[in-house]
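Ops channel
N.P.: pipeline sanity check, posting one input/output pair.
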C-alpha cells in the first residue's frame, strides 16, 4: 500500500491521492473475505444500437449469447450514456465522471492528468484490473490497466485465459474489461451472406433503399460476430470454473453509424443495453425500468467489492440495490452532451445537450443554424445518409 500511495501522489498530486487513500482504508475492512469477493467482467461492444439486440426487440439477427445473459440476469430498459461517441463514452464508463468534468469531452479526447480511473479505484479495493482489445482512452498514466493485448487487437480468448487462470490460482479477485471492436465500421467482419437484405425489418426512420439494406445487413453481420465473442468469453468463465463467483456485465455502447444514432442525442445515440448476471444474487430473467448511466458503473463496482464510493469525487451513483432486487428505482433523469469538435469532418461547432426522464427527452441544439455534419454523412459518401 505504501508503494501504491507514493505512486498515486506522483501521478495525481496530494489532494487526489488523499481521496484515493480513503478508498484504500475502506478496502482494508471489506464486508466479506477478500478471497470470496466476486470477480467482475464487463464486455463492451463498439457502436452497437441496443435495439438491434434480441432482448431489446431486435428481430433481424439472433444474438443468442446476449439473450442467454438476459435470461440468467437482469436487463435494464432505461440505461444511458453521457455522450454519443466512443472516446468520451468509454472514459465516462471508466472514471465515474461526466465528460465535461473529466476533460474527455470532444471525441478522440483524453481525461485530465489528475483523474482517478476505475483502475486505481479497484486496485485500492485489492483487485487486479485488466483490459483486452480496444482502448480509445488517454493518458495511460490514468488508465494503467494490465493490458492483455495491443489496442488494435480484437477479442482474443487466448490472451484472456492466462490472466483469469493466474488470478484464480492465487485466489485474487479481478476486474476485466473485454472491449470488442465490433460492430464499428467498416463492417467487414462476420458473414453477411447469411442475412437476406430484402427480408430485413428496417427502423422507421431509415430511408428504405437497396443501399441502406446492403449496409444495414453488413452492420448486422458484425452484431452477430460480436455476440459470438460474448459467447466465447462466457464459455471461458465456465472453463475456468468461476461462473458462480463472477459478475458479468454486458453493454452495447452508443448507437451505430447509421442515421439518428451515433453523433446525436436521440435515444439511439445515447441509450444503451445493460445486462448483468450475478449467480445467486440477481434473480434470473429480471427486468428493471430503473434509470442509470455509464457514470454509475464505477461506484457500483466499488460497492460490489465491499468498498464505499467517495461521492465527494465520483459523479455517478451505485445501482447495486437494483441488482440485488431491493428497488426498481435509481435516477429520475439522465443527462448527455455532444460536440462536433473532434468529430472527423464535423463543423467547427455544433453543440447539443439533453435531459431525459422515463417519459420525455428534451434535446437542445446550441447552434441550430449550423449544418450538422459528421464523417459518414458527407454528400456522396454513404447513401443511407
Amino acid at each position: 500500500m505504501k508503494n501504491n500511495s507514493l505512486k498515486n501522489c506522483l501521478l495525481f498530486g496530494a489532494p487526489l491521492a488523499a481521496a484515493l487513500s480513503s478508498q484504500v482504508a475502506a478496502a482494508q475492512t471489506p464486508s466479506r473475505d477478500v478471497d470470496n469477493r466476486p470477480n467482475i467482467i464487463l464486455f463492451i461492444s463498439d457502436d452497437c444500437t441496443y435495439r438491434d439486440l434480441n432482448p431489446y426487440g431486435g428481430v433481424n439477427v439472433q444474438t443468442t449469447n446476449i439473450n442467454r445473459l438476459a435470461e440468467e440476469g437482469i436487463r435494464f430498459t432505461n440505461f444511458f450514456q453521457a455522450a454519443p461517441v466512443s472516446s468520451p463514452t468509454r472514459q465516462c464508463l471508466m472514471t465515474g465522471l461526466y465528460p465535461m468534468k473529466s476533460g474527455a469531452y470532444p471525441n478522440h479526447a483524453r481525461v485530465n492528468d489528475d483523474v482517478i480511473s476505475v483502475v486505481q479505484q479497484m486496485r485500492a479495493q485489492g483487485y487486479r484490473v485488466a483490459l483486452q482489445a480496444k482502448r480509445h482512452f488517454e493518458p495511460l498514466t490514468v488508465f494503467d490497466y494490465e493490458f492483455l493485448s495491443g489496442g488494435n487487437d480484437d477479442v482474443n480468448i487466448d490472451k484472456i485465459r492466462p490472466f483469469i487462470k493466474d488470478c484464480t490460482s492465487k485466489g485474487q479477485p479481478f476486474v476485466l474489461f473485454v472491449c470488442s471492436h465490433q460492430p464499428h465500421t467498416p463492417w467487414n467482419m462476420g458473414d453477411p451472406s447469411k442475412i437476406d437484405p430484402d427480408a430485413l425489418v428496417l427502423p422507421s426512420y431509415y430511408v428504405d433503399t437497396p443501399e441502406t439494406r446492403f449496409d444495414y445487413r453488413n452492420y448486422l453481420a458484425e452484431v452477430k460476430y460480436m455476440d459470438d465473442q460474448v459467447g466465447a468469453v462466457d464459455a471461458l468463465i465456465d472453463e475456468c470454473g468461476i461462473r458462480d463467483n463472477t459478475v458479468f456485465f454486458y453493454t452495447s455502447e452508443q448507437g451505430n453509424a447509421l442515421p439518428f444514432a451515433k453523433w446525436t442525442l436521440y435515444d439511439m445515440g445515447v441509450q444503451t443495453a445493460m445486462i448483468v448476471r450475478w449467480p445467486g444474487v440477481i434473480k434470473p430473467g429480471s427486468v428493471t425500468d430503473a434509470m442509470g448511466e455509464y457514470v454509475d458503473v464505477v461506484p457500483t463496482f466499488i460497492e460490489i467489492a465491499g468498498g464505499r464510493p467517495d461521492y465527494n469525487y465520483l459523479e455517478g451513483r451505485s445501482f447495486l440495490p437494483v441488482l440485488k432486487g431491493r428497488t426498481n428505482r435509481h435516477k429520475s433523469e439522465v443527462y448527455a452532451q455532444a460536440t462536433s469538435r473532434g468529430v472527423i469532418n464535423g463543423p467547427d461547432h455544433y453543440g447539443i445537450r439533453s435531459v431525459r426522464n422515463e417519459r420525455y427527452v428534451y434535446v437542445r441544439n446550441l447552434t441550430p443554424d449550423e449544418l450538422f455534419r459528421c464523417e459518414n454523412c458527407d454528400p456522396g459518401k454513404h447513401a443511407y445518409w
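N.P.: looks fine end to end. The longest strand covers residues 286-293.
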